[in-house]
Design brief:
The complex is a heterodimer of chains A (387) and B (223). Chain A contains 12 helices and 10 strands. Chain A is α+β, with helices and mostly antiparallel strands. Chain A folds into 2 domains: 182 residues, no CATH class; 156 residues, no CATH class. In chain A, strand 2 and strand 3 form a beta hairpin. The two termini of chain A are 27 Å apart. With 223 residues, chain B is an alpha/beta fold. In chain B, the strands form 2 sheets. Chain B has a 6-stranded mixed beta sheet, sandwiched between helices. A 4-stranded antiparallel beta sheet of chain B has the order 2-1-4-5, with helices on one face. In chain B, a hairpin with a 2-residue loop joins strand 4 and strand 5. Chain B is globular. The two termini of chain B are 24 Å apart. Classes of the chains: A alpha+beta (387), B alpha/beta (223).
Chain lengths: 387, 223
Amino acid sequence: MSLFEILRSALAGVTANKLRSVLTLLGVLIGVAAVILLLAVGNGSAQTVKDAISSLGTNTLTVRGTFTNDQATALREAGLGHVDTVVPQVSTSLTVASPDTSEDSVSIIGTTADYFETGTNTIGSGDAFTDADITTSSKVVVIGQTLATTLFPTGSALGESISIDGNAYTVVGILSSQSSTTGSDANSVVIAPITRVQRSFTGFDAVSTLTIEATSSEDVSAAEAEVGIVLNQLQGTTDDTATYTITNQSSLLETQAESAESFTVLLGVVAAISLLVGGIGVTNVMLVTVTERTREIGIRKALGATRGAILGQFLAEAATLTLVGGILGVAVALIGAQYEIYGTQPVVLDYSIPLALGVSVAIGVFFGVYPAARAANMRPIQALRSI
Amino acid sequence: MSTVLSLSDIQQVYGTGDAAVHALRGINLTVEQGDYLAIMGPSGSGKSTLMNLLGCLDIASDGIYELAGHNVAELSERELARVRNEEIGFIFQSFNLVSRMTAQANVELPLVYGGVRKKERAERARAALAMVGLSDRGGHQPQQLSGGQQQRVAIARALVTNPTLLLADEPTGNLDSTSTEEILGLFDQLRDEGRTIVIITHEDEVAARAKRVIHVRDGLIAA
């Protein structure tokens, strides 16, 4: 018997009892679809975290502590091999008002023009302030998008004047939209020249945060070490007595990504169980089929079917059931993955499709072996005698 | 004339110890090519057991059964399947057609297991159906055919491999008298062609057509 004929006869067997085949197929379909879809959901949430990492700028370090302007400048000009730029920042939280409305507790960041070169802090419209604005402590600001629309709901904020704690500032630029994965709303900020903020609000010569941009994402750890050495020298401390902390935010998010991945595995296991249950359904139906077709098996044996031919026939039937169920399951999963599930856009893992299909066919064969072997080992006279 | 099959001192015992049932107690029988043998006997006589042995559906507990030169007891499972496929054409009382296959597909089935190519299979099956006068019924499913027609399909299926031995078990047991006459006529025709036929029956009119009749009683051939 050729392979094609085995398949054709298997198909005939499967279609002989359509309702039963469809129900069995449904079990496999749900199992396969669940495996692919749940893995896709897990992967999707891991992907979201990874996107957040890349939006943060994977090559940035944040150093918090108390520094002087000179120390910040010294660090920038130390010529560290793995450090691209050092952006000093001071921050506070104040009331910001437009002629129409006001907003309490807005975070005010004083920094240099380099700030707009790091991470995703890019200008959406208007311009950044310049080095000249730093030197002259100009009263100009760049504000976040949310804040811009809150303060000026009817028109553009560009060129308008806002008051920060009673002082008037001119809006020269608006940030592009930021993803707000880091907790506080990154779209509701005021960014002003560091010299201005120090003079007006936080006190002269105190820098609270240094954002370090490494030369590349692989160099972040090396940059972290270099920055530590220089800061210890500048402040006369050791690693043990240091009063500053260096955080590598991408490493923090990587931990989150890892937990998202283990979540994916957990989902996969749950889905695999449903696939297993589908497989047991296949065994059940194949056992019924074998019992029902005992007489046919007897006839086939009397006509010269070998044990292998009978085994092949029933195995092929089980495999056909699971293969068709598997293919439909893949289709359902791919359609389902187009939609957002619990706020997560599923991202189908490439390997999950051949995996789920392969496993479903393997399950068909594995769970089909017992019924098929029972059929193949029947003695022809017994098989023929049954009605 | 060559010998198709020979049984010598065939015994068949089911069960062991006190529960042992001696279905056959020493059968000696030879069938030559072209023979038309009827085996008769009441139910429980052991004639069905004998039929199963002749058809290689069961193996005797003791004795030697040679079919077309093979010692059946020494054949492996696979070789037995091949002997059933090539040497024997079965005709059953209840026709035993596979219900969800057409007449044509049923007749092709032994050729499928014999490894015959699709095209040749279709031709040979058509020829076999023509021989039993059912050329126009190839596309029908068994349930669309009358009993007599179903049995004729079964005979076509038995003939299609051109077997050494045609083995019929009560072939007219489920048929009315018209169909019985039809089938017996077909057997006569096969006999005239020189086919070797062994028919198991309890009907005298069936046995009357045979060249030779033996009676089985209590597991032995009665004189």
